[in-house]
Write a structure and sequence with these properties.
The longest helix is centred in the N-terminal third of the chain and has 19 residues. Helix 1 packs antiparallel against helix 2. This protein is of the alpha+beta class.
Length: 346
């Protein structure tokens, strides 16, 4: 697979987005989000998504020049309509608003609907943590096609419905928990398909409800399983919570509209640590807690206990130094777009 610096990939993303009527400032933000996902090791949410976004712009499913509208607001809450703008831009503004409210009133809670895909959630929660807040965000996929089966079923009724929390600390990397409530993000199945790889047993079932290791079975009527294996009712329960917060509370609703535009409903929250105790003592304890976890005696075949978010931090350092790998099929599609829009070396 070809390898590129993160700066080069950001430049490619930014140039292609600007060529598709995205404002320079917004294009830079989106490019940083996408490549940040690659840097952290979550390639399914990285530049491979650029191909999807450009297709959606061309179809009118993403409106690059859209602005958010605040429909309801109090000192601690707001409900936002993104008017089909880029999710990265709208949700960044939503988290910024939540942080401002939390600084003034100790908590800020924002709901967002009618916006495009928001990518990896960690970036938003980490932004709050960097401001001395506990950051929390959930997201669903609106009323578009679903990919996750309720526990015990064989037909998809839910999205991958991720949630994320980040906490301020004195650790070298963010203390952050970011996970899908499904066994895997759909993008990881798509990535395996692009790379011609099989997937682990326990990720998906085929259209008949049988376990499968073939990523193609997902698009042939299969479904992603909820997280938890034979305890999948727990992941299913978490997914339902995310659906309520991100879908029903926002007003997006639930279920599937076959003609629906892909959108991410979001529930965004920032909590001021200083409302409960001093930020200095809290961050000190979070750091000590992470170190306490890392000192756990190792199980056989384990070489380290990582604190949540540490592996992504270490991967980012490594990929900034050694470059980011991009699968051949994805890079071929990106270079084809660059030729189409007359982009040479960004």
């Amino acid at each position: 697979m070809p390898t590129f610096s993160h700066q080069y990939l950001q430049s490619v993303c930014r140039s292609l987005l600007v060529a598709n009527r995205v404002k320079e400032e917004d294009a830079q933000l989106i490019a940083e989000h996408l490549v940040s996902a690659n840097l952290s090791g979550h390639d399914s949410h990285g530049i491979i998504q650029l191909l999807v976004y450009i297709d959606r712009i061309e179809k009118g499913h993403i409106l690059p020049d859209a602005s958010l509208e605040i429909l309801q607001e109090t000192s601690t809450t707001a409900r936002i309509n993104g008017h089909w703008g880029f999710g990265y831009v709208i949700t960044t503004q939503a988290m910024d608003l939540a942080i401002r409210k939390a600084k003034e009133s100790n908590v800020g809670i924002i709901s967002v609907f009618q916006q495009s895909h928001i990518g990896r959630l960690a970036t938003y929660s980490i932004t709050a943590a960097q401001e001395g807040m506990i950051g929390f965000i959930t997201a669903d996929s609106g009323r578009t096609v679903k990919n996750v089966v309720p526990f015990g079923g064989k037909e998809s009724r839910l999205g991958t419905n991720p949630l994320c929390m980040a906490f301020p600390s004195n650790l070298p990397g963010p203390f952050c928990i970011d996970l899908a409530t499904a066994s895997v993000a759909k993008g990881k199945v798509d990535l395996a398909k692009q790379r011609g790889e099989s997937i682990p047993l326990g990720w998906i079932i085929d259209k008949n409800g049988r376990p499968s290791t073939n990523p193609n079975d997902l698009d042939l009527g299969g479904s992603i399983l909820p997280i938890g294996g034979d305890q999948g009712y727990k992941g299913y329960g978490l997914s339902v919570i995310v659906e309520v917060l991100s879908g029903i509370l926002t007003g997006l609703g639930f279920g599937v509209d076959p003609e629906g535009i892909h959108n991410d409903g979001c529930f965004v929250m920032a909590i001021n640590v200083e409302a409960f105790r001093s930020l200095k003592s809290f961050t000190k304890d979070i750091t000590a807690f992470a170190e306490y976890l890392q000192e756990t005696p190792l199980a056989p075949n384990s070489n380290k206990v990582y604190y949540p978010g540490e592996l992504e931090y270490l991967t980012t350092i490594e990929r900034k130094d050694k470059g980011i790998f991009v699968e051949e099929a994805t890079w071929k599609s990106i270079t084809s777009l660059m030729t189409r829009y007359g982009i040479t070396t960004p």
